[in-house]
Specification:
Number of domains: 2
Structural class: alpha+beta
Order of helices and strands: HHHHHHEEEEEEH
Strand content: 5-15%
Strand order of the largest sheet: 1-2-5-4-3-6
Helix content: 40-55%
Number of strands: 6
Largest sheet: 6 strands, mixed
Distance between the termini: 86 Å
């Protein structure tokens, strides 16, 4: 019931919302996303066709009334035929339909439904509806900025455990580390530790996120080794260039090379064999 009744509606939500509120729901998410995309795409396409027929008929009737009223007061323009008048009225109605906000909305959700169906069918991807994803992005960005103003950026504090502790290394950080999950292996000062989990409490206001690490057991395979330095968090994260920025940079470089002056063959100094 969840997969076929509530699942298609829940797949419209952003992934973060689904993990937060419906992580334990018995839903086959790829199948629910496939059904949701089909219903969205086909339903909005049928609605767009119905809206088109309704709008064009209403616009044609309205324009016919306006033209009839105008012709009663003065003669039609010279050279204007009934066919030409009908063609002009049709183009005008079509342009009005294309500029209507409802036409844009139905066309967008038709395309979105098709893309969500394709994503679920080819890669089992559960893509939420873009308006909700954008709303979640705005809320998340606001929360991050508020958090950064409240908790300043400082280096991590690392402390070693004692014989009484079930962990060997304790890392206190001012920022969360989403990738630090078991069985990730951390290399710190030429020693290897495995992420055991995140402490439920005990973090201070300046470093509320606390991670507990332990040395791997003998014979245990290291998985996903990551080098760690407590000062890493203070270094700006290097982001890959945007696709359009990369293309623009490549074009600029080609133009720069093309504008370089030609060099005569005599100017080249090659290696001379003695």
């Amino acid at each position: 019931m969840w997969t076929y009744l509530l699942g298609p509606l829940l797949t419209l939500l952003p992934e973060r919302w689904r993990r937060m509120w419906f992580a334990g729901a018995p839903v086959n998410w790829p199948r629910a996303a496939l059904l949701s995309g089909l219903v969205e795409g086909v339903g909005c396409l049928l609605a767009l066709i119905g809206w088109y027929l309704y709008f064009i008929q209403g616009a044609a009737d309205q324009q016919a009334g306006l033209v009839a009223g105008a012709l009663l007061t003065k003669a039609p323009p010279k050279g204007m035929t009934d066919a030409g008048l009908s063609y002009a009225m049709g183009l005008s109605a079509l342009a009005a339909f294309a500029m209507h906000p409802l036409s844009w909305a139905l066309a967008y959700f038709t395309i979105e439904g098709m893309l969500r169906t394709f994503a679920a069918l080819t890669s089992d991807e559960v893509a939420g509806s873009l308006p909700l994803v954008l709303a979640d992005g705005i809320v998340t960005a606001g929360q991050h900025r508020a958090y950064e103003r409240r908790v300043p950026l400082v280096a991590d504090v690392v402390s070693a455990g004692t014989e009484k502790d079930a962990w060997d290394l304790r890392v206190e950080s001012c920022r969360p580390k989403p990738t630090w999950k078991y069985p990730l292996t951390i290399r710190f000062r030429d020693e290897y530790f495995q992420v055991a989990g995140e402490a439920v409490s005990g973090g201070k206001a300046a470093r509320p996120h606390v991670y507990l690490l332990r040395r791997p057991s003998a014979g245990e395979v290291y998985r996903g080794v990551v080098d760690y330095d407590p000062e890493d968090i203070l270094r700006p994260e290097e982001k890959p260039p945007h696709f359009l920025s990369g293309v623009a940079g490549a074009v600029r470089e080609k133009i720069r090379i093309a504008q370089l002056p030609l060099v005569a063959a005599d100017d080249f100094v090659g290696d001379k064999r003695q």
